[in-house]
Write a structure and sequence with these properties.
five-stranded mixed β-barrel; 21 strands; 16 helices; binds 5'-deoxyadenosine
Length: 470
């Protein structure tokens, strides 16, 4: 076992996350697991004894970024070695899972490759790398990594702020034809309710006010309930909403096909469930949705939106779009544009289709030329930006609740988030974790600025906007 501290004090760990929120969560848990081994986190890569890149394989660009970062890190490692200092380099995440040994061949600076299901084995991998030079683990082990990963201390939760992620589900069985996730994260698995509630209670106890339940397919959650039966996400949300201190609940990322009645009821009945949902649609064309194997139509998507709006009036939506999927015609793209306009997403991520090795769509004929993808992407993004700007403008003059998170950039300023996750700045010193109504006066880019309001107002921003007729 490694000593808690070296000759020059504790060893320093630098973790960089790419890609999704699950990687952000996993990075925190890796840091928690390495803390008892004597590692403290640093924000300066130059100071680190151990650098871990928690990588993303979802699009080619994400993978390229990691390899160019590894090139820079190699130079840093070589320079440190000339001064007699050893830096250990680890590659974690979905590239580690997808490329495994290939990473060691391609980048000589890498000492450790660890797949997303093996993070609890990091201490042993470090030992192995020390003894044998390099170590790799991309197994899908039988033991539950969540049981084996260390929990953060109360102090480290406090240091991380008043909002937190909790993984409730991992993996995906849907096999959309463009997506690597079912291969890199494996089959769907749900954590038992008791474990999730325990983690959420610990977070609440250390001052966390908002929890986002995360999973690649979070609303396909089907974990063991406290009564021994299988619970869905709606029931899980209801259980977590009971925890004292938890004021806001979110979940991400959802699939339109897994919205059951209990989840709709959670939106209707639980004030903590935020009226703001990320619901990826990918395309507005039935032909393309079928080729993507999304297993829902455009009409199904509208129906899901309608049910949620009926349950929680004023609910807003964000989405993901893929532009230039193989075979996408001008008409298919128009269908995507019209869907975006009809739903009025308050923001969205849109990506050019990126063929991923090993996925069915990569081998489809009729790949769309890059220039057309770029043109269409710009057009969609401009349209969504316009909708987002209009929504932000509508917020000016309104009063609604803000969860304050941290000091602002200027002294005496505090910044928080609206229910729609817009940053809201106030010229006042407010304790993080406080929820107070703010009257919004101005808008700068994507941020709102306002002053504390002394009136009692509707709980949620979207109710306030709805009451104002927006
Ligand atoms: N090309 C482009 N975008 C992709 N996504 C997933 N796979 C690909 C791909 N091959 C996008 C989807 C998904 C988001 C996380 O990434 O929109 O919802
Ligand atoms: Fe990928 Fe589709 Fe699964 Fe989402 S639902 S992770 S896009 S395969």
């Amino acid at each position: 076992m490694a000593q808690p501290t070296g000759m020059n004090g504790p060893r320093k760990l630098y973790v960089k996350s790419y890609g999704c929120q699950m990687n952000v969560y996993d990075s925190r848990r890796m840091a928690d697991t390495l803390a008892p081994e004597g590692f403290v986190e640093t924000t300066q890569i130059e100071d680190a004894d151990l650098v871990i890149l928690n990588t993303c394989h979802i699009r080619e660009k994400a993978a390229d970024k990691v390899y160019s970062e590894l090139g820079r890190i190699r130079q840093m490692k070589d320079a440190a070695a000339r001064e007699g200092r050893n830096i250990t380099i680890g590659v974690a995440g979905c590239i580690a899972q997808a490329e495994g040994e290939e990473i060691l061949r391609r980048e000589k600076a890498v000492d450790i490759v660890v797949g997303p299901q093996s993070y609890h084995r990091l201490p042993q991998l470090l030992e192995r790398a020390k003894r044998f030079g390099r170590a790799i683990d991309t197994e899908f082990p039988v033991e539950d990594k969540f049981d084996a990963l260390a929990q953060p201390s109360k102090d480290s939760i406090r240091a991380r702020g008043v909002t937190a992620f909790v993984t409730v589900q991992e993996g995906c069985d849907k096999f959309c034809t463009f997506c690597v996730v079912p291969y890199t994260r494996g089959a769907e698995m749900s954590r038992p309710v008791a474990k999730i509630v325990d983690e959420a209670e610990r977070l609440a106890d250390a001052g966390v006010r908002e929890i986002t339940l995360i999973g690649q397919n979070v609303n396909a959650y089907h974990g063991e309930g406290t009564d021994g039966r299988t619970w869905g996400l709606g029931r899980l949300l209801a259980q977590i909403a009971e925890i004292p201190g938890i004021a806001r609940l979110r979940y991400s990322t959802s699939h339109p096909n897994d919205i059951d009645d209990a989840l709709i009821e959670a939106h209707r009945d639980l004030p903590a469930v935020m009226p703001h949902l990320h619901l990826p649609v990918q395309s507005g064309s039935d032909r393309i949705l079928a080729a993507m194997n999304r297993r829902h139509t455009r009409a199904d998507y509208f129906r899901a939106i309608e049910r949620l709006r009926d349950a929680q009036p004023g609910i807003t939506f964000t989405s993901d779009f893929i532009i230039g999927f193989p075979g996408e015609t001008e008409q298919d793209f128009r269908d995507t544009m019209s869907l975006a306009a009809d739903v009025r997403f308050v923001s969205a991520y849109s990506f050019k289709y990126s063929p991923r090795p090993g996925t069915p769509a990569a081998d489809m004929s009729e790949q769309v030329p890059e220039e057309i993808k770029s043109e269409r992407l710009l057009e969609l993004q401009a349209s969504i930006d316009n909708i987002q700007a209009a929504f932000n403008r509508d917020c000016v003059g309104q009063t609604f609740d803000v969860l304050f998170e941290k000091e602002g950039r200027k002294p005496g300023q505090t910044v928080g988030r609206s229910v729609n996750l817009q940053p809201v700045h106030v010229d006042a010193v407010i304790a993080p974790g406080t929820i107070l109504p703010v009257r919004v006066d101005t808008l700068h880019a994507y941020s709102l600025f306002g002053a504390l309001a002394d009136t009692s107002v509707p709980r949620h921003q979207n109710e306030a906007l709805a009451m104002a007729g927006v």
